[in-house]
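User: Show me an example of a complex going from sequences to structure tokens.

Assistant: Sure. Here are the input components:
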Amino acid sequence: MNIERRDFFKILSIGALTAAGSKSVQARDWQYTGRPPKAPALLYDSTLCIGCKACEVGCKKANGLDLDHSDLEKTFGVSNTWDCADDLDTNSWLKIKLYKNGDASVKDRETDGFAFMRSACMHCVEPDCQSVCPTSALLKDPETGIVSWDVDACCGCRYCQVACPFAIPKFEYEKAFPKIEKCFLCEHRLAEGQITGCSEACPTGATLFGEYETILAEAKRRLAVKEGDTYDYPVHTLESGVTKPRPAAKYINHVYGEKDGGGTQYIVLSAVPFSKLGLPKLPEHSSSSKSEALQHGLYQGLIAPIVLFGGLAAAAFRNVRQEEKEERRAQDEA
Amino acid sequence: MKLKPLGGEIWTKPFKVLLLLAVIAGIFIIRRFIFGLGAVTHLNDGYPWGMWIVYDVVTGTAIACGGYAMAILVYIFNRGKYHPLVRSALLASLFGYTLAGVSIVLDVGRYWQLHNVFMPGYYNPHSVMFEVASCIALYIFVMWVEFSPAFAEQMKREKLHNFLNKIMFIFLGLGVLLPTMHQSSLGSLIIVAGEKLSPLFQTMWIPLLFLITAILMGYSMVIVESILSSVGFKRPIESNILARLSRLIPFLLVIFLIIRFADIIIRGEIGLMFSFNLASIMFIIETILFLIPMVILFSEKNRGRSQMLFISAVLMILAGALYRFDVFIVVFNPGHGYHYFPAFQEIMITVGIIAMEIMGYLIFVKRLPVFPEVKHA
Amino acid sequence: MSTVLNYLSKQGHVPENPEIRGVSRRDFLKFCTITAASLGLPLGMADAIAKAVTSKSRPPVIWLHFQECTGCTESLLRATHPTVENLILDLISLDYSETLMAGAGHQAEDALHKSVAENEGKFILVVEGSIPLKDDGIYCKIGGKTALSILNEVAPKAAAIVAIGSCASWGGVQSSYPNPTGAVGVDAIVKDKPVINLPGCPASPYNLLSTVLYYLTLKKLPELDRKGRPKFAYGRLVHENCERRPHFDAGRFANQFGDDGHKQGWCLYKLGCKGPETHANCPVQLYGDVGSNAWPVGTGHPCFGCTEKGVGFEKPLHQQASVFTATPPALFPDINQDKGSGFTAGAALVVGAAAGAAAVSGMKVSKALKETDAEPPADKQQEV
């Protein structure tokens, strides 16, 4: 055979390439990149939200999603509503949810008040879903920071659902060939220079779209405004030129998502505690950073397993040999 | 010591019942593939892992750690006197793991892409799941190799048998290494769930806790299985070996409880134990279940009594299983109003899979050399 | 309709004469039934209303005008189904009303004093317009007396007080910043008597009619909300019954007057519609008896919030509404909306059966083991 050893391996690797579904042979080895400087981001200001759900409609329109019907109708004793998912699901990537306490008479008050929450993918800086996905189906784009899902990769193990601290990825349990669905920050619209469907639809500027840094600065500006002072709230984007003046609410002095769980690209302002809005209190780093540190520590370069294996195999080798000897001796004696 | 097939009728009445259960499960499995997971399970977006993952995979493989636990004793610490128990323990493990593998295929939504877990271009070495999946897949293969001498012996293929024996040390080494890795990593799986799990259960030490309980459950299962097959096949109980084997259990249990409590106390979360919410109550029940076998088996007299051995081993398995169920389902709280209890068909599939395990075990022990020959006095 | 008619005829409550006070019998019954419905009373109450309406005793009403535009009276006069001005004027004994009475000057003043004195504790006082308090109330005088002194003189002798229009309810347009006359509503002055507020600019005449009929029929005042408004008319937000509500729910908003969305009749929220924070029955009752869409939002203008103190005449016309109700019919899932399937009978059965079987067989084995433990087995000792 006049094929050289080198060429032989080449052929082998081409075979492997084909087997891998013509995808790049390089492992999709990602690293936490932090927030890309020009990352598209969303600011949700719960105090501006009027619960009109225009964003839900805008989202469905932008992404071609079906309408939903759920047990919520039964809960409220109504029927034939237009669209009513009881939470995020594979057809509703964005949901306005309600926090309610006591007689729910005043908006943005913790006791005897109510507040709205816009539930959707937070596009974490250290996405737990990306860390746990065994097939690298969920990946955070290093440039846009958008966490997207690869239909050709996912094996449907749903570890992402276990991992996500915000319960975002949704799985089509009712389908024979299910998919994972969640907000992809209107990647397709951004590519065309448009803004997300939700921020375009929002009439009050509760959902504001922009680059992360300017959006964060806007959030901080709002926190600095005294309660009751009139503030010109921008609508859709900071640069849209449309503003709606209104008195500032009594904000909780914290931008949720600036640091929580390692930070997110979707940040939230509110007047009621974030935990009441279904945003858990998270440490400054993601849970996955912990489990990764553990795994990497234990399995760094596979040194520990290989050493352990060496020891185990050696022990087994010695003991099996000894056993054989004893057996042979026993046979000989017999 | 010579191993011999037990012989006897396979087509017995219990076997027919098991077959019926397996057929029912089979029908539901077909439903699952046609109509999707939602048609047979109560799995939901909050509790994506239910009965199948938590029982069949996480708990089932821990129970099936008998082979692993015995291999540590016999081949690594060279305790040859336990040799009579090895192959039957291995066989039980073999079926436990193989059907755990089957359960995974049932459970993953996009099973036709399951191979992506190992594919260059797709695999994700950062994921605990990657390690668990690789180790379990490899271990299933390793176990079949470890068990293959039984086939060689039965078919009287001396040469093959000798060859297998020569290379066996590699597989014995792997057979200890791989479970050590993935049984601990089954615990690490939940670290990423972070705040969804009560601090009483969520800890960076969870891999070690899972590993110790898996070994404990392995030994306990060897005891239970040995006693059950002795009773079932009317063989003498190997109480002497079992009594010696069971000496290990209380010591491992003490280590487990010390690590578990020390960790909680150091983290300053011990107060939660007395908050008497779900997490606290489950934690207390678990601790009691772990304590009973420990107390029973500390007494040498009890270790000599097969009834006490049996009871404490069963309790030990229950404790370990409860620990796993608590971590993944009972105490696990995804928030957002989700709740979960397995559906009828979901449970029946698990029951059917257990039935398949037992059927396989019965066929193998009757037709292959698994148990040592009984020397009648 | 005919069944109600039959029912009423059988009960003998329908006047023999089909033409009562110029209203056909059919229209009369229709009116009674509609009134019962709009009051939120059971259908059978049409009977009681008919009885009250046809009774001989007419309660005296005194109608005072203060700082106002007489728009409420004007709108009352234009209520047409059935010819309400006839009904209301015959139904009650309107003893004093500057707009409607023929007399003027001292003659009129005398009528007022006479009626107040004669009907002390029996008459219904209707107030239209706000009362200025600044500079001792010199900004509104009738017959040389300030509005405040007239009210203080008449109010204590009234059986009940109805404040019609936004001005009488809380001060209305005169009270908006900087409120040069110090205008206030009736309930800021009269504290010892129930004041029924019927705000609106102008107030819907049917709300007054219904309130009066309610009082005549049941001899008590209707249930009021926190702002003193009858709940049957002001119990719900304009937003809740608005015909444009589906556009709101679907996120279709008019962005400016005359744009595509506006032409297509989309939601006017973005133009500053106050419907979401204003309680009134406008979208249901409409105005002017000319058919559908005859109300502000129906004509394409955002609701102004005239029935809501703190909204109408106070918030800029095109500022977006802020206070929203979070109760149905707005359907929001709770932050932790219940989801997932729980315990089913089948599942419980299997778990129970499995646990039972395991426990029973476990106990059997355990018992068997106890027996073997009891008899020292020969082979066991041999093995050692």
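The lines above are the inputs; the final block is the predicted structure for all three components together. The longest strand of chain A covers residues 113-119.
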